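Thread title: Can someone regenerate the structure for this chain?

I was given the following input by a collaborator and told the matching structure tokens would be attached. They weren't. Posting the sequence so someone can regenerate them.
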Amino acid sequence: MKKLIVLFSVMFLFNSCSFYILSKSDLSWQPYKEGDVLIFESNKGEVDTIKIKEVEKHTNPNDPLDLFPTMVQTLFVVAEHSVLEMNIGETGTSIEFTLRLGDNDLRYPCSGLYINDFENKKIEGGKYKIEAKENCYNMKDKPFDLRYIYWSKEYGYLGLEFKDNYVWFLKSFVRNGKEIFKI
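Best answer:
Regenerated them for you:
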């Protein structure tokens, strides 16, 4: 009898949780693989090389203290620092743009966009121009330098545009020793 009670309790717990898992369609917005090398160049002649160290998914509760938590999946793309995060939850799938290039004195907002909103940002041939906006409520009043993020499903980051016409653009995307970036 005790085994039945434990079995029903476990079944109740698993059936009471909601799961949000990134779909193939969601993942198609994230082009990076472990070992990829991205080379960016600024309009001032600076060069920054980003080597992707890890691309990994984690499924965790959105509230670890909740008795019946909603389980959400997050994908992390990491180089020396975070490059990108993709999250799915009750409100949809979003991409958090976390790439930092060049001078550490530049201020970046916590900027992200829901995948459903990308179509409104299309500029030409699979390229998207995303306005940098502060998503963190407690940081809304802080100034930042980043103005736009340029993105494509095929190559990911195409560039970053800062105030004062300071721009970084993707110059090279190398995978398995071969250049795959074509303009």
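The chain has a mean pLDDT of 84.
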